TrEMBL record:
Organism of this sequence: Mangrovicoccus algicola
Name by which UniProt lists this protein: Lrp/AsnC family transcriptional regulator
Gene Ontology CC: cytosol
SMART domains: HTH_ASNC
Protein keywords: DNA-binding, Transcription, Transcription regulation
GO molecular function: sequence-specific DNA binding
Domain HTH asnC-type: 5-66
SUPFAM superfamilies with a match to the protein in the record: Dimeric alpha+beta barrel, Winged helix' DNA-binding domain
PANTHER family (alphabetical): DNA-BINDING TRANSCRIPTIONAL ACTIVATOR DECR (PTHR30154:SF17), LEUCINE-RESPONSIVE REGULATORY PROTEIN (PTHR30154)
Pfam families hit by this protein: AsnC_trans_reg, HTH_24
Length: 159
């Protein structure tokens, strides 16, 4: 169930998504409120699960992770034990940035970040050693056009 947000909550979330390292004073100034109420709102947003974590966004290329693959997986396995092992395997692999279960012809899509094609093949070989997969298609991203962790914050009609 979605949490009800007012205009101040949305401004706070927008400020935090832009730069979570800002001081509380700076956030309060940006949203037009005083420090204590802003702190209380942030605390409530954390408790409600709206704010899950504070993190840093790293540049993958600066770390030598120049290849981004989207991996399409089809499986003929649908029993719970296989799925648990598969999901555990994905969660343990640091190369997997995202994993989604899909509707349609493809069962899963992974976003995998590695240094190069050889590193992707190492990942692929390790994956198929862990779990049985019917079909894998790897698509190399030639250019990242947009990447963000910022979510669009829903607006209320009465604002």
């Amino acid at each position: 169930m979605a949490v009800q947000l007012d205009a101040v909550d949305r401004r706070i979330l927008d400020a935090l998504q832009r730069d979570a390292s800002q001081s509380l004073d700076e956030i309060a100034r940006r949203v037009g409120a005083s420090k204590t109420p802003v702190w209380n709102r942030i605390r409530k947003l954390r408790e409600a699960g709206v704010i899950r974590a504070d993190t840093v966004v790293l540049d993958p290329e600066a770390l030598g992770l120049e290849a981004c693959f989207f991996v399409l997986i089809r499986t003929s396995e649908h029993e719970a034990a296989w799925q648990q092992k598969f999901l555990r395997t994905l969660r343990e692999r640091p190369e997997v940035l995202e994993a989604h279960r899909l509707a349609g012809d493809i069962d899963y899509i992974l976003k995998v970040r590695v240094a190069n094609a050889r590193a992707y093949d190492d990942f692929y070989q390790a994956l198929i050693q862990e779990v049985r997969i019917f079909n894998v298609t790897a698509l190399l991203s030639m250019e990242e056009i947009k990447a963000t962790t910022a979510l669009p914050i829903p607006r209320l009609d009465e604002d």
